[in-house]
Amino acid sequence: xxxxxxxxxxxxxxxxxxxxxxxxxxxxxxxxxxxxxxxxxxxxxxxxxxxxxxxxxxxxxxxxxxxxxxxxxxxxxxxxxxxxxxxxxxxxxxxxxxxxxxxxxxxxxxxxxxxxxxxxxxxxxxxxxxxxxxxxxxxxxxxxxxxxxxxxxxxxxxxxxxxxxxxxxxxxxxxxxxxxxxxxxxxxxxxxxxxxxxxxxxxxxxxxxxxxxxxxxxxxxxxxxxxxxxxxxxxxxxxxxxxxxxxxxxxxxxxxxxx
Length: 259
What we know:
The chain has helices at residues 2-9, 19-33, 61-64, 108-121, 150-156, 171-179, 209-219, 228-238, 240-252; strands spanning 14-18, 36-41, 55-58, 72-74, 94-99, 125-130, 141-145, 159-162, 183-186, 201-204. It is an alpha/beta fold.
């Protein structure tokens, strides 16, 4: 009822919901209100409610495929680039960072195994792990736990690894892209978007440990400069301004006159 009275008080014409729970709640409330309802689906899990919504957006092709609705619009995420307040210094040693929960769905198992094998043959590489989970102790692996300032790490390292096995469009990847730091990225689901987008994004199959191991051994090198193609990709496609423009165009295409 509180939502109902707020929408009435401010004479809201359009409500945009994210994820299945909020979408379901407003779907039933809107049977009485008759407002324009836009719902965004961020993954391929759950969400039969999205099949019932007239206007649906999805963050990637793979997310869109799970919606049984002929009126789905794919609108890729975007974020506002955050400025680093302190003078983050780049590590003098060759450093890679992996950020996120230390579990299998995030692909940390393949990162750890690939790095350990590569490090036996290549002693100059170091891995910094930033995230929650059981602490990892191994040669040239530094587990610092969770952090509220992930961008500091993106700026200070040579490469960022994102090995998520079930990503539909990670905001953390966009953050890394915005810094210009090169990325080693699992090319599944929504991350297929990044294929051939920039020389600063190296992709691999998250189910192929040998492929990632080969990248660590033979492809990457210590970087002295930020990758301008990554920064341009952020500015041209993934900034908050571009995200706003995509949604503005979508909202303007809706059938307002019927409401």
